[in-house]
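hi support,

uploading two proteins for the ticket. first:
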Amino acid sequence: MSAFPARPLRRVLLSTLATVAGVVLLLTLKPHTTASAGDVAAGSAAPTPAPSATSGTSGSSNGSSNGSSNGSSSKGTSGTRTVDGDTAQTRYGPVQLRLTLTGGRITAVKAVQLPNDNPRDTEIAGFAIPQLTQETLAAQSAKIDTVSGATYTSEGYVRSLQSALDKAGV
């Protein structure tokens, strides 16, 4: 005779409890937290020139920036200026960019607003924004590829980037 007598109900109960305990443990795991959206935005692009060297929009972050003071200049304009793109609403939150242009070329891109409702949004923005910024500086336009795994953030980035370029007249 075996050490464990045949008790199917006990086995079913133990198996069920073990499964439930395993699922509960998996659900209580917390995702790895990353830098906040402000840290992501600050570290995502080249340093912004001193305010005394810029002209254009005020640093509003609500998307209602005034593009009239800097939107009429042409592509060959010399000097450094800053332009805020419109706020692009995505499924996971707003995306807004601030471009720094020198002589009609994009020299820096800073994220003013990024999705940051939860740690996953911040994590996605943390890896997508630097890649998108690098592509923007290389392409000097809004014709850039989206980042795999960050499609909504990438699309919002491109919309805000294009609106800033339109305002700058580039």
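and the second one:
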Amino acid sequence: MTVGPIPGDQIETAAAETDPPQRGTLVEFVRRPLPMQVLRFSAVGIVCTTTYALLYLTLHGPLGAQAANFIAMLVSAILNTAANRAFTFGLRGSRQILFHHIQGIAVFAFGWALTALSLFVLHQISEHPSSRLELVILMIVNLIATCVRFLTFRHVFSRALRKQLTTAG
């Protein structure tokens, strides 16, 4: 055990020197433990996954599996990006919001490609799988996409918050 300043205490930026609340926000972000981000990300994920599942099951009958998957994933990806931007990573305001949503759509495209492929493979194995079996497969594959989403968002939003705090003022 060491005695001395806690890492992050010495963080100073030009904006933070003149604006103590900004310094506090930057220090809070740097100190925010990964488990807390994972917990918040998971809470957002539960809400978005529930939204996805309900949309998928609602749209499956009239649109079919692939279209229902695409629409449900797109809607939940937009909600997920907005919620994680604010709740998990603490970004506020409209600065870089378009860029962040473009990043979210890129991550969505990766997840959609994985899920579309999994549906294709499932339909090659079973000619008429139930929508519930499809949903189980989609949820499992979405876990992979969720890990990629967290790592991407953590990288993009961390850089954005640091940049936002250092250029404000």
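thanks. also noticed: The two ends are 37 Å apart (CA to CA).
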